[in-house]
Amino acid sequence: MITKTVSGVEEACKGVSDNMTLMLGGFGLCGIPENAIAQLVALNVKGLTCISNNAGVDDFGLGLLLQKHQIKKMISSYVGENAEFERQMLSGELDVELIPQGTLAQRCRAAQSGIPAFYTPAGYGTEVAEGKESREFNGKMHIMERAFEADFAFVKAWKGDTAGNLIFKGTARNFNPNMAGAAAITVAEVEELVPAGELDPNEVHIPGILVQRIFKGERYEKRIEQRTVRQQ
């Protein structure tokens, strides 16, 4: 029986080093690979290029790596909710590539599928298109976007099995499935890890062939990004 299981987050992150490009799943504070991020902080790797929809908040998610200046460049689509991210970007300490959210998702999918590039109308005629090839399709201009090239992809799933098959829950089924298999090594952390064969194949979102390492995570905080309460 093929097994992708590793002993824990330390083994899962083995091989991560300075100046690598990492993909990290999640949307806002949902579906974040919290254990992997904590281990990256502990490893104190520097000069990272991180591909993620956003960068968490100041003291959670990728915000923890930003606090220690471990990230050299962020490739993302959203800056809000993270004051340190904004400060480093405006001061020039952090290189930031902001791209449309759909383009970010599709560049992940392209890497996952082995497609080197694709055309999209998003961003044509704006700063996003500067320096990129453009072409007309059906009377509409498109720009060429290239697939990402990453060393590691860290994703977080609700449930997985020892063969690496993954099931995502709710909003966590956002960038996580797109990033699985989109890097040289995909690491999946799961809330529940079961033996191979226990998952209903009809419910599997990502097959194990796209995952190289899987482990059971611990102590997920599951924060609420914005809590609004009614005045009494």
Outline the structure in words.
The chain has about 230 residues and is an alpha/beta fold. The protein is built from six helices and eleven strands. It has a domain of about 150 residues: Glutaconate Coenzyme A-transferase, CATH 3.40.1080. The longest helix has 13 residues. The chain starts with 8 loop residues before the first helix and ends in a 16-residue tail after the last strand.
Provide keyphrases for this structure:
232 residues; Glutaconate Coenzyme A-transferase; eight-stranded mixed beta sheet; three-stranded antiparallel beta sheet; 6 helices
Which helices and strands occur, and which strands form pairs?
Blueprint: H1 9-12, E1 21-24, H2 34-43, E2 48-51, H3 63-67, E3 71-76, H4 83-91, E4 95-98, H5 101-113, E5 117-120, E6 134-137, E7 140-146, E8 152-161, E9 166-167, H6 175-179, E10 185-194, E11 213-216
Parallel strand pairs: 1-2, 1-8, 2-3, 3-4, 8-10, 10-11
Antiparallel strand pairs: 5-7, 6-7, 8-9
Output the CATH topology of the domain at 17-98 and 150-216.
Glutaconate Coenzyme A-transferase
Tell me the CATH superfamily of the domain at 17-98 and 150-216: Glutaconate Coenzyme A-transferase
**CATH structural class of the domain at 17-98 and 150-216:** Alpha Beta
Order of helices and strands: HEHEHEHEHEEEEEHEE
Mean pLDDT: 94
Number of helices: 6
The class by helix and strand makeup works out as: alpha/beta
| N-to-C span | 58 Å
Measured by DSSP, the beta-strand proportion falls in: 25-35%
Radius of gyration from CA coordinates = 18 Å
Shape: globular
The largest sheet is: 8 strands, mixed
| Low-pLDDT regions | none
Going by CATH, the architecture of the domain at 17-98 and 150-216 would be 3-Layer(aba) Sandwich
Helix content: 10-25%
Number of strands: 11
